[in-house]
């Protein structure tokens, strides 16, 4: 009986292409780009791998629930959602940082007694401000976080920053870095037990120098 393909969950967007390029550089697959089509499942017949292209924060759920054997996702999302997965390796791409930012000129935001924080990262934001003694109100958003303080919805934001260009374009100032993040390889623990030879070989080749 032929062995079933490996099922790898990748976040749609730049990190999926970075992941594929890295896999190719390690001799693990033959697909170097996700392409321009709308397909969400890419089959690499030569390497016997099925790639699932899904939302970044859903990668952990696919791997945790066993719908995918392994996946790639940012450390920021892993710490925010705390999926029950095995994390064998940090990978050298997907660099960004989770930062606090505020509107340019409003430097007294830290004096507010009830600080309103707009973010997609309620757990990490709450932990950060709690350690610093702030009383905060989290406003959980799912996109266009940068306009929240500009429209009066929040006092500050906590969001991912890559180059800082979006903050600058919206007249926001990066105050402090909460954490730095890169891509992580994650595995389903049960899949690792059942397919130890295939998955173990994949991981060893991926992290080899």
From TrEMBL:
Pathway: Amino-acid biosynthesis; L-histidine biosynthesis; L-histidine from 5-phospho-alpha-D-ribose 1-diphosphate: step 1/9
Span of domain ATP phosphoribosyltransferase catalytic: 55-206
Keywords, sorted A to Z: Amino-acid biosynthesis, ATP-binding, Cytoplasm, Glycosyltransferase, Histidine biosynthesis, Nucleotide-binding, Transferase
Gene Ontology MF terms in the entry: ATP binding; ATP phosphoribosyltransferase activity
Gene3D superfamilies for this protein: Periplasmic binding protein-like II
Domain notes: Lacks the C-terminal regulatory region which is replaced by HisZ.
Protein name as annotated: ATP phosphoribosyltransferase
Organism listed in the record: Turneriella parva (strain ATCC BAA-1111 / DSM 21527 / NCTC 11395 / H)
